[in-house]
Each structure stands twice: as C-alpha cells, then as structure tokens.
Specification:
This is General stress protein. It holds the Pfam family YflT. With 171 residues, this protein is of the alpha+beta class. It has 4 helices and 5 strands; from the N terminus they run βαββααββα. Helix 2 runs antiparallel to helix 3. The longest helix is centred in the middle third of the chain and has 25 residues. The radius of gyration is 28 Å and the shape is elongated. It starts with 23 loop residues before the first strand and ends with a helix.
C-alpha cells in the first residue's frame, strides 16, 4: 500500500484559502488596556473603520490575589450565603406551583438552604486538611496591549495614532 500522491488531492475550497489582504499589522503598543482602548476610541472618533482593528494582550500571566485567611467558620458563612440564594430559587419555584402560604414556603426554603450550605461549606473546607487555608481571586493580566489593524488600513491608523500621541504630549 502506497501513500497518496499530493498531486492527486483536490484544490482547497474557497473557504480554506488564506485571505492575504486581511493580514494584520501592529500600529501601536500600550502598557495598559485603557491606553489601547483610548487609541481605538480616537480612531473611531476620526472616522476610521474600527471593525478592521483588534486589541491583543500579550505576555499573559495569571495573578492570584490573596483576600484573607479561610477558616472553617468563614467557609460555613460563605456556604450560608450561597445556600440561602439556592433556597430562595427553590422557594420561588415552589410558590409558582403551590397554593400554600408563599411567605412560609420562601422563608423555610431559604433557611433550609442556608443550613445545608453552612454544613457543606464547613465540611468541604475541613476535608481539605489545611492545604488551602486562604481565599483568593484570580485574574488573567497582559504585560502589554497591541493595537492591530488590517494591513490595507495600517498607514491611516498609524497617522491618526501618531496625531493622538502628539496632541497628548503637547497639551
């Protein structure tokens, strides 16, 4: 059995062809997202077809900000809050399909949800065995932001961004 000859393959479909006119060019780099956003806003304000632009974050890093120590009590308290919300949701569903006292149904489902939330929150934290005794919030951050423009409009974008930079420096 022999490998198929590449010359025997059919030509690629039109949708598979690379559109060379849509190649993008970096016209500016910024240290923060706000600067890149401001540049694209300036392009838009000056009639530039912004649908040809993109803001691309590079040098990505994951930053985890530690919010505080997590104890069994705090885990239970967080469980109370999430359980109460879930109980409220279930209570609303019950009141839609019941003729019973809706205030009593809502109150009891919120309380039951809060109780079970506290139990699951405390038990879940206790089962970690102290491996993660802190709460945190993670975010993805870029080291820099590039404003890219389709190649056919790159020169116009460069001129406008240069004008914006010059005005900002001389104001």
């Amino acid at each position: 059995m022999t490998a198929p000859d590449p010359a025997d393959r059919p030509d690629p479909a039109v949708g598979e062809l690379v559109d060379l006119e849509r190649a993008s060019v970096t016209v500016a780099r910024f240290a923060d997202y706000a600067g890149a956003q401001q540049a694209v806003d300036y392009l838009s304000d000056n009639g530039f077809p912004v649908e040809k632009t993109a803001i691309i974050g590079t040098d990505l890093r994951l930053v985890e900000n530690v919010l505080g120590r997590l104890t069994v009590g705090r885990a239970a308290l967080a469980g109370v809050a999430s359980g109460a919300w879930f109980g409220l949701f279930i209570g609303i569903l019950f009141t839609l399909f019941s003729d019973a006292n809706w205030v009593g149904v809502l109150l009891s489902t919120v309380l039951i949800g809060a109780l079970w939330g506290a139990i699951f929150g405390a038990a879940g934290h206790a089962l970690t065995g102290g491996r993660r005794d802190f709460s945190s919030r993670s975010s993805l951050q870029a080291g820099q932001y590039a404003v890219t423009v389709e190649a056919d409009a790159a020169e116009e974008a460069r001129v406008l961004i240069t004008r914006q930079t010059w005005r900002a420096a001389n104001t």
